[in-house]
Design goal:
Olfactory receptor; 322 residues; mainly alpha; membrane
Amino acid sequence: EILFNLGPPPQFMLLLTGIPGQENVYLWISVPFCLMYIISIVGNSVILFIIKIDSSLHEPMYIFLSMLGVTDIGISIASIPTILGMYLFNCREISLNACFAQLFFIHSLQCIESSVLLLMAFDRYVAICNPLRYASILTLPIAAKMGLVCVLRGMAAMFPLPFLLKRFQYCRANVLSHSYCLHQEVMKMACLDITVNSIYGLFITLVTVGLDSLLILLSYVMILKTALTVASHAECLRALNTCVSHLCAILIFYTPEIGFLSMIHRFKKKALPQSEILLSYLHLLFPPVLNPIVYSIKTKEIRKRIMNIFKNYSTNRLQWGH
């Protein structure tokens, strides 16, 4: 019997998908994604720069805000390049290993962002409910350790995902329904039983994002209860006003995930495929874009320093002009 060595089998490639039926305007669709990418990177970088150079902002609240900014930059870098590659250059193919790496970073960073929002809720809880002990409870070393735990927790929770997927043989349709990789989509392309992956994915979601959202809700129930017991109405509003930026960040992060996406999956047969894809973009890409805008507008210290930067820049230009 003669055996012919034809080399290793071709690598299984996945195909990314854009917005169905809009192939003729992909170039124009790439424009808002380019703008979102620029706004996310520049906006979060400006906030990080301001917090770094201003020693008066070296407080737990702004340390957590810095972590949120770094996480948002990471999400943008992990997801938008493949989206732009598909819409701009029609680069639809992605290898399994690249897909595994992308889904690991996307899921890890989203888990870390959820944890950071929980830390920020805890910061507001201590500041409003126990203001006299705030400085002793939330010191900078403690805040740094809490942040490190959140990062390690997110990475440890998602670390098994690529290995759980790598053990499979893939033989089903290789077309993703998004222009980036997610664990719940890739595992459906496997030839073998995916029960372990499904159970682990659900378990991790419940003990990370699910638990974080419940603890954030509990924190704000306690904050509201404390604020309503304050004798002065003005003091109550002042206390709650310090939470506005964080509440906006919570709504931006959790509303698409818990509300819109669950509705789309519930009425999946009736919903247009474009709706599901647009909502997935909303869920993934809006927090990195809107968070720096919200904090620049609603946080007085950040807004004041950004205005000073523009003011100094304008003054210097006038001086150079003369």
